[in-house]
Amino acid sequence: MDVMGDKATLLETGRFVQPADREDPGTAAEEMRHRLAAEAGDVDAMSVLGSLLLRRGDLDGAESLLRAATAEGDRAAANNLGVLLHQRGYADEAAGWWRVAAVAGSAAAAHALGRHHRERGDEPAAEYWLRQSAEQGHTLGAYALADLLEHRGDVGAERWLRAAAERGHREAAYRLARALDRRATTERTERAERAGGPVRPDRAADAVRSPADEAEQWYRQAAARGHRRAALHLGAILERRGELKEAGRWYLNSAKDGESRAACALGFLLRDAGDEESAAVWWLKAAQDGDGNAANALGALHAERGETQTAERWYRAAMDAGDVNGAYNLGLLCAEQGRTAHADQWYRRAAYAGHREAANALAVLLLQGGDAAGAEPWFSKAAEAGSVDAAFNLGILYASRDDGAAALRWYERAAAAGHTDAALQVGTARLREGDDQEAERHLRCAAGGGSAEAAYRLGTVLDARRPPAGPPVLGEPAAEKTECEEWYERAAEMGHRRAQVRVGMLASARGDVVEAARWYRKAAEAGSRNGAFNLGLLLAREGSEPEAALWWTRAADAGHGRAALRLALLYARRGQLAQGQRWASRAVDLGPAEVAERAGRLREALQQELTA
Question: Engineering a disulfide at 481: which of 173, 306, 397, 485 sits with its beta carbon 3.0 to 4.6 angstroms away?
Answer without folding.
Answer: 485
